[in-house]
Amino acid sequence: MKPIFTRITLISFLFVLFISISAFTETKKDNEPDSIVSYTKAIKKNRQDAEAYLGRGIAYGNLGKYKKAIADFNKAIKLSQKDANVYYNRGIAYLKIGNHKKAKKDFNKAIELNPRYAKACTDHGFARDKSAYPHNDWMLTGYGAMLTPDSLGDTLTFRAKYEDSYIVVWAVSKRLYSFKKIPADFEMEGQVGKHFGDQKHVEFNVVPVVLRWNLFPWDAYVDTSFATGVGISYALETPKVEAIGVDHTPRLLGYLMFEFAFALPNVPRWSFVTRVHHRSGANGIFDGRLDASNAIGFGIKYIF
Predict the structure, then answer these.
(1) CA distances (Å), origin 295, targets 237, 240, 241, 280
(2) Please, which of 30, 112, 151, 173 could form a disulfide with 189 given CB 3.0 to 4.6 Å?
(3) In CATH, what number is assigned to the domain containing residue 194?
(4) Domain CATH number, residue 36
(5) Which of 273, 240, 233 lies closest to 256 in space, CA to CA?
(6) Domain edge (last residue) among 88, 122, 156
(7) Model-level pTM?
(8) Domain count, the chain
(9) Structure confidence by residue, pLDDT tens digits, 119-158
């Protein structure tokens, strides 16, 4: 009887051990955040889902599980080697475990793939390694717009009435500084614009102060930036649109611009842009003029 009793005891012990381990494993799974559970299910369904590995890696990083995060980022990079966001997040994870050399390498790779990830270095105290990406501070923008003499407020709220007057602008700008604490850049820009339709003159715009915000929640899908700039604008002839309803309008006025730029993460150097092009007297500073002309235009931007 003893051998039979021993076998039953052993089998019972192994069964209880199996149940205990299973329960412990399930408890650990239940304690994991819903995001990790969801990403894990997505990975089980599709082992080639780079976005799921990236998402789970970020979730692990938020929990302080940096080695698990790095493992997931490694898998995401094998599946999608051109995604700057993966290198950026892996760089942060390496930084958290003290591997500064690998962190800097990943940050430089992120910026090489997408120049807007310059914040990847500056946000974390690294000087930009320009030998890795020497030509990413210049931008060329071209856009076309239709003009209105109505106010900036009417233009932004889509209540303006437009004239048969158009402008095509080419702008060259340069990033001068990337802020360390926030994902923003300081730029300068120069523009040449040619008018068509009711007015046919040329105008020159100098925009010495441009601030660009680079971080939006949807950047992994559509890389977005927003910029605003102030400067001066000079028209070679008196603009007819700006002369509507006034006795006198100066050729030299203040200039204001707003821009949204949208790029696909895998084509970061090219962006679709929409701009507000505004000439005014800067609340009467220029010869007593208030609003003069406004335009909303669309175009493209190239980073080089």
Answers:
(1) 18, 15, 11, 12
(2) 173
(3) 2.40.160.20
(4) 1.25.40.10
(5) 233
(6) 122
(7) 0.61
(8) 2
(9) 556 655 554 444 444 346 899 999 999 999 998 889 989 8
